[in-house]
Amino acid sequence: MTQGLLLVDHGSRRASANALLDEVAERVRAKLGERALVEPAHMELAEPTLAQAFSRLVERGATEVVVVPYFLSPGRHATEDVPRLAREAAAAFPGVPHRVAPPLGPHDLLDQLVLVRFRE
């Protein structure tokens, strides 16, 4: 099984705001290796959309897609909108399973990063 990672944020009309997700996706890709299937996506207001990025992962060979909401809180976007958009995108590829990871905020590693920033 070849996993693809779809990193999704809200999206913005400002290109500079969207560039952050591109940078994060690039760093993750670099850590996983050149052949890693990693795509950034936006819920709305910018492209690529979640559906476009999902399709691109499948075109590149992903046989399973893991959607990671790039959000700090488990609010409506992370718990309702992203899973719905992922289901809609996956409907075009019935043989490709997907799952949506929880948002980043409630993770112990994020707590550690907050402490690093505090100490800086």
Question: Which terms summarize this structure?
Answer:
120 residues, four-stranded parallel beta sheet, 4 helices
Structural class: alpha/beta
SSE pattern: EHEHEHEH
What fraction of the residues are assigned to beta strands by DSSP?
A: 15-25%
Helix tally? 4
Please describe the biggest sheet, giving its number of strands, its sense, and whether it closes into a barrel: 4 strands, parallel
Q: Biggest sheet, strands in spatial order?
A: 2-1-3-4
Distance between the termini: 41 Å
Mean pLDDT: 93
Q: How does this structure look, described?
A:
It contains 4 helices and 4 strands; from the N terminus they run βαβαβαβα. It is 46% helix and 18% strand. It is α/β, with parallel strands linked by helices and 120 residues long. α1 (15-32) links the parallel β1 and β2 (37-42). The protein has helices at 15-32, 50-59, 76-90, 108-119; strands spanning 3-9, 37-42, 64-69, 98-100. The radius of gyration is 14 Å and the shape is globular. A 4-stranded parallel sheet has the order 2-1-3-4, with helices on both faces.
